[in-house]
From TrEMBL:
It comes from the Bacteria. Keywords: Magnesium, Metal-binding, Transferase. This is Polyprenyl synthetase family protein. One of its GO terms (molecular function) is prenyltransferase activity. Pfam families: polyprenyl_synt. PANTHER family: ALL TRANS-POLYPRENYL-DIPHOSPHATE SYNTHASE PDSS1 (PTHR12001:SF69), GERANYLGERANYL PYROPHOSPHATE SYNTHASE (PTHR12001). GO terms for biological process: isoprenoid biosynthetic process. It comes from Kineosporia babensis.
Amino acid sequence: MTASLDLPVVDAALAESVRVGMETIESRLREAVQQADQLADTASRHLVEAGGKRIRPMLTLLAANLGDASRPEVLEAGVVVELTHLASLYHDDVMDSADQRRGAAAAHLVWGNQVAILVGDLLFARASRVVAGLGPEAVDIQAATFERLCLGQMHETVGPTPADDPIAHYLQVLGDKTGSLIATAGRFGAMFGGCDAATVEIMVRYGELVGVAFQLADDVIDLSSAGRVSGKVQGTDLREGVPTLPTLLVRQAAAQGDAAAAQIVTMLDGDLSEDARLAETIEALNEHKVMDAARDEAARWAQDAVTTLDPLPESAAKTALRQFAEAVVDRTR
């Protein structure tokens, strides 16, 4: 089983339900990516076999436990959201010119950009076939989620206009690229677990907030000691010039007259291809108050997600969902 976050589920019955569900989803996920064509099969299995946190199907299972998690549709929904996520990663790595994904070489470096994009398309197609078995409402939700994923990638690629606030633009990108699918994971879990409409809507909002918090936490991890602990390659986004909350905050501080921030901006806009220069820039960022501000922002989104759960009656699943949101930001420390 591939674990999702270090989530301590205190309730033994819930922990067992999630463990068994994740094992089943993992097995079905590997079946779902199989292709008759040898090249397509090898490339499609590339990221599945590299592992991952599987936070989306984990959230689907936790949300389903607010109702009846034993329904077979719940497991299929977990496969759908993870397949969709995997498909998006093939495209993201081409767009971002990433060298690695989950400790393995990015697919586009192994097979080229065109094959990587087509494999992503194949996996989106497989996700569509699985979701078709869940009914027309699920298909509509999946299509709307895919639309937001595409819009988020497009807006990230184009960047903010001069009239846009860069940080607000960035948060919207995160909502579309990350929050939308995590929200769908929560929605599917509650929906196929037989929860009422009010609970489903709570899980949609919760998932959106947790998704943004997760990515904001990753922004910090990419630059901090937590990145070394987690095995992430530090400064990847920095070197590629990809905007993140710490860099946006330091640019904002520089524009407001912060001399130390202005010096960091000069470093950011310089040549970061050399490891020593990149390390120096990372160190300067970590010494600036913007890193604490970025951590605080991630924590605020996670806390908002926890607060969203307030109308739900107390249960083991609700407690686990609180822990899920908290675990997202605990990774930064």
